[in-house]
């Protein structure tokens, strides 16, 4: 099961922030390790040089003893000064003792004898010869030592610090950083939860709008308050609404058209069936039954055209797009319609190049287009007439001409013949008035162009469909 966007963002953002924070802490600790060691080394240097300035070459033994005595009393003095008023003096002493035990020093005279030393300084000499920084093990503990020598008095001063103190300080800094990260993690998670929730509010608004819609309300969703990230989704949703609305309209139109157009044939069918039942002569009965068959054929033709028109939608045609040999398709359809032409003694001629004349389109839709044009020409051409189908090409286009020598269509009505169920007044040919409507819809799907003109002979009608020539590949 796919987790919610809010949960996904919360977990991944929180993990990402914690990971980046951890890496930042590690990097800071690494840099602070170097900076801290440099800072503490600087303190050792400063302490040693400060002691050097205070030590003169004329110190008597009595003065040295007095100074050493006062140095030994420093812990007691600090405990009384800082912890005298505390409720728990022992705990206070334990707390401050590391501070005055932090740095230890020893001072040697020119005879290499220790004349002064700090409280709890190691018995082992901190240094004997080397001037500067040294790392040594004293009493199984690592120490950092800095030694300086007075050039005048020849007195050496060594200031030392346990590495354990430095490690403890770094460990405390690390613990503090981790503690801060742990404390801030829940707050960070809450902030991410709130921010992501506010960011997803627009999605909830769109969802609420779609959920609260009536089943018949298919207007597009307003994109003004939709964030750019989900606009493609809402755009596709609007496109789906438009397609559904068009599909519903086609269904309603099909039902209305079928009810309208089948009413007359069904009434005629009932009337002719009643005449056949009441007829006393075989001749009258046969005539009525023939009229019943014509009514059935007309009804079937109307239903077939209506079904074709309802299925002829851009989506279905676009999915079938392929390269079609128009001359071969036309030859096949003309062969199928020859029997209908022979009943009226009509001659059908096909003039097309021998090589394939290709266009890009739906094979089914193009077949319907050619069939409707040629079938209309046969219907409206009088007996013993001629129907010509011509296919030719130009540099950019492929043209299909269907020419008949029937009554033609007046120029003022040539725009209206594409309307549904429109038929020229006075036409004696049977039909539903949907053929050219279907042709125009197929032409629009293929981004082609259709024209109605008069033939060069001046008699009949010439229909020209112009397709774009496919690019060479």
Summarize the structure.
The protein has helices at residues 5-54, 61-72, 74-83, 89-100, 163-199, 201-211, 231-278, 282-311, 314-319, 326-343, 363-380, 435-445; strands spanning 103-108, 114-117, 132-138, 141-149, 156-162, 322-325, 347-351, 358-361, 386-393, 397-404, 449-453, 461-468. By secondary structure, the chain is an alpha+beta fold.
Keywords:
alpha+beta, Heat Shock Protein 90, 473 residues, 12 strands, five-stranded mixed sheet, Helix Hairpins
> What is the N-to-C order of secondary-structure elements (H for helix, E for strand)?
HHHHEEEEEHHHHHEHEEHEEHEE
Averaged pLDDT: 76
Q: What's the domain count?
A: 3
Distance between the termini: 46 Å
| Whole-angstrom Rg | 52 Å
Structure class: alpha+beta
**How many alpha or pi helices?**
12
- The biggest beta sheet, please? 5 strands, antiparallel
Which residues sit in consecutive blocks of at least 5 with pLDDT less than 50?
none
| Quantity of strands, as a count | 12
How helical, in percent, are the residues?
55-70%
- The neighbouring-strand order within the major sheet is 2-1-5-4-3
> What percentage of the residues does DSSP assign to strands (E)?
15-25%
Shape: rod-shaped
């Amino acid at each position: 099961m796919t987790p919610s966007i809010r949960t996904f963002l919360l977990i991944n953002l929180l993990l990402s922030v914690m990971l980046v924070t951890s890496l930042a802490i590690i990097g800071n600790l690494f840099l602070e390790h170097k900076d801290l060691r440099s800072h503490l080394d600087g303190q050792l240097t400063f302490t040693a040089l400060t002691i050097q300035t205070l030590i003169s070459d004329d110190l008597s033994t009595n003065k040295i003893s007095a100074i050493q005595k006062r140095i030994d009393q420093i812990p007691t003095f600090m405990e009384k000064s800082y912890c005298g008023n505390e409720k728990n003096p022992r705990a206070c002493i334990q707390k401050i003792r590391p501070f005055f035990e932090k740095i230890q020093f020893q001072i040697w005279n020119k005879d290499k004898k220790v004349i002064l030393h700090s409280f709890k300084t190691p018995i082992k000499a901190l240094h004997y010869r080397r001037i500067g920084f040294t790392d040594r093990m004293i009493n199984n503990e690592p120490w950092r030592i800095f030694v300086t020598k007075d050039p005048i008095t020849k007195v050496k001063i060594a200031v030392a610090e346990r590495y354990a103190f430095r490690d403890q300080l770094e460990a405390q800094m690390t613990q503090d950083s981790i503690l801060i990260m742990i404390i801030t993690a829940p707050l960070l998670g809450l902030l991410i939860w709130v921010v992501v929730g506010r960011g997803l509010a627009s999605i909830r608004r769109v969802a609420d709008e779609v959920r609260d819609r009536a089943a018949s309300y298919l207007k597009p969703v307003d994109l003004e308050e939709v964030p750019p990230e989900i606009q493609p989704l809402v755009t596709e949703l609007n496109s789906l609404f438009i397609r559904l609305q068009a599909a519903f309209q086609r269904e309603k139109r099909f039902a209305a058209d079928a009810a309208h157009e089948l009413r007359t044939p069904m009434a005629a069918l009932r009337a002719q069936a009643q005449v056949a039942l009441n007829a006393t002569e075989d001749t009258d009965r046969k005539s009525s039954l023939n009229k019943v068959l014509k009514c059935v054929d007309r009804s079937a033709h109307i239903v077939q055209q209506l079904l074709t028109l309802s299925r002829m939608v851009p989506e279905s045609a676009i999915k079938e797009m392929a390269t079609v040999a128009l001359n071969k398709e036309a030859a096949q359809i003309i062969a199928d319609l020859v029997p209908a032409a022979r009943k009226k003694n009509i001659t059908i001629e096909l003039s097309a190049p021998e090589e394939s004349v290709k266009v890009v389109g739906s094979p089914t839709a193009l077949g319907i287009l050619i069939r409707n044009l040629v079938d209309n020409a046969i219907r409206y051409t009088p007996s013993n007439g001629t129907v010509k189908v011509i296919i030719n090409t130009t540099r950019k286009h492929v043209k299909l001409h269907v020419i008949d020598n029937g009554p033609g269509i007046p120029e003022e009505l040539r725009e209206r013949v594409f309307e549904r169920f429109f038929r020229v007044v006075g036409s004696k040919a049977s039909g539903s008035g949907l053929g050219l409507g279907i042709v125009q819809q197929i032409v629009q799907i293929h981004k082609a162009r259709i024209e109605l003109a008069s033939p060069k002979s001046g008699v009949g009608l010439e229909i020209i469909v112009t397709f774009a020539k496919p690019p060479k590949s």
